[in-house]
Design goal:
The protein is of the alpha+beta class and 206 residues long. It has helices spanning 11-21, 43-48, 67-76, 88-118, 127-147, 161-175, 182-191, 195-204; strands spanning 2-5, 26-29, 56-59, 62-64. The protein folds into two domains: 2-81 and 198-204, Glutaredoxin, CATH 3.40.30; 88-194, Up-down Bundle (Glutathione S-transferase Yfyf (Class Pi), Chain A, domain 2). Bound molecules: glutathione.
Length: 206
């Protein structure tokens, strides 16, 4: 199995998840640019991931290009670790929080990145950054606080892949200077104490 990734971007979710599930993989560091060896815009890489994004997972014939799908793929290969809660209610709550993270919580973060550096300059609207996106993040964060389990984990009463998704996203929010609630800072710092987190971090080369 080969995972393509870059630093602590969304690909770190997949790298950390692999360590949680005990999956061995070949990790290939991708760089911005069109270098044939490892450039995200090289023809070779774009055959795997049309937009030149990370992560990409290749497992035989299977190519996956969405971080949330990859972490679930890993969790399903280690059923004894219970990394996706079972049972109708806990599973529904797991799905809910994962979808919320990738569609709502992440949205103002990625929009900030796009309007600061990722979009071609003529499409950027810098006025959005301080006002609109800060407002949207605050609203999403308040919603998140209502959705989270009271157990100290994202869902149910034990660690799951939702914690991987959430911790990486909260770190991203902090890096992009969004105001994080104290309880979320405490939560993510606790998750970052996990052995699998440190092991994955070592492989990023950052
Ligand atoms: N929905 C995708 C988004 C992947 C994504 O946008 N990755 C960013 C890094 S966090 C990327 O590769 N950006 C490089 C680019 O857009 O050229 C996922 O969650 O895997």
């Amino acid at each position: 199995m080969k995972l393509y990734g870059m630093g602590i971007s969304r690909s770190f979710r997949a790298l950390w998840a692999a360590h949680e599930a005990g999956i061995e993989l070949d990790y290939s560091i991708v760089k911005f640019g069109s270098s044939a060896a490892n450039g995200n815009q090289s023809d070779l890489y774009k055959q795997l991931n049309y937009q030149g994004k990370v992560p990409t997972l290749v497992d035989g014939e299977l190519v996956l290009t969405e971080s949330a799908a990859i972490i679930n793929y890993f969790a399903n290969q280690a059923p004894k670790k219970n990394l996706i809660p079972s049972g109708t209610v806990d599973r529904a709550k797991y799905d809910q929080i994962c979808y919320f993270i990738v569609t709502e919580l992440e949205q103002p973060l990625w929009s900030k990145g796009k309007h600061k550096f990722a979009l071609p300059e003529q499409y950027r609207v810098p006025e959005l950054i301080d006002k609109t996106l800060a407002f949207e993040f605050a609203k999403a964060q308040a919603t998140l606080l209502g959705l989270l389990s009271t157990s100290g984990f994202a869902v149910g009463d034990h660690f799951s892949m939702a914690d991987v998704l959430l911790t990486q996203t909260l770190n991203w929010a902090q890096r992009f200077e969004f105001a994080l609630d104290e309880s979320l800072i405490e939560y993510k710092e606790r998750m970052m104490q996990r052995e699998a987190y440190s092991a994955a971090m070592l492989r990023t080369g950052t």
